[in-house]
Amino acid sequence: MTDRFVSVVIVGARGRMGKTLLRAVLDSDDMTLAGAVDRTESPGMGEDAARLCGMPDSGVFLTDELRPPRGSIVVDFSLPGATDLNIARCVELGVPLVLGTTGITPETRELLKRAGKEIPIVSAANFSVGITLLTQFAAMAARALGPEFDTEIFELHHRHKRDAPSGTALRIGKAIAQATERNFEDVAVRARNTTETQRTAAEIGISALRGGDSAGEHTILFLGEGERLEFSHRATDRGIFARGALRAARWLVGRPAGLYDMADVLGLPRRA
Ligand code: NAD
After folding, report:
1. Is position 233 annotated as part of the catalytic site?
2. Same domain, 23 and 80
3. Ligand 1: nearest atom to the Cα of 78
4. Burial class (CB in 10 A: 0-12, 13-18, 19+), 69
């Protein structure tokens, strides 16, 4: 192993994202797998982690304890119950963290902020490069277009998704509201079913469709008099989240302590 290799420990290795990450790391020519962690009750403990994703043996075994070696980077896509301990372990060992787990509590968010003073962390609820750009474009457009343009967000996901609207649609809505100095909760209209209420100018409408196997589509429409602007992103594979997370891991090498997001990784301004 040489210095040009980024050494990665994957937490949640048996999960859908964990396996996608494992495959991406084992397939890459600039990364090396330094560890694979899942919870104690998970099948396959002690077995070669590469078997989880059908790859040739790696010499790294699935374990239930996060012990990242010095110089490695932890990539955590597990579940919110695991996050606090994983953050504490990374701080204790001085190891950078890429955190993709969603649904974390406000207390964990506070813990992340404190940890960001000691180690470099990239935390994002959506590691897709395309969605990161889409969110920035939408905020920028909303500010430039002004209140004459009505804003509507539309999203479509596979039939198994439980939450609607998607967290990503809500985050895009929040970014637009923030860019135009509106309070998102005051102006968000999540579903319409009326015979007499017209939309207000300030409204940000959000519509969710469910069905089939779509990995996720998001469109933001700015509807004006005589013109309409649309920004769309279509995901066809969850590999986009893994690629984004590993891009963040590479970016973290040698970075000072701080709590970063995907916009930082892409070199975008915090406020587009
Ligand atoms: P999943 O349920 O398939 O996998 C989660 C894995 O974490 C399981 O293998 C589980 O056993 C493991 N786990 C649970 N508790 C653990 C613990 N204490 N220690 C170690 N491992 C533990 O879920 P998934 O679809 O792979 O998603 C994982 C997380 O990533 C979710 O929070 C999901 O919302 C999030 N996610 C984020 C992005 C993003 O871009 N940020 C994209 C996709 C999914």
Report:
1. no
2. yes
3. 7
4. exposed
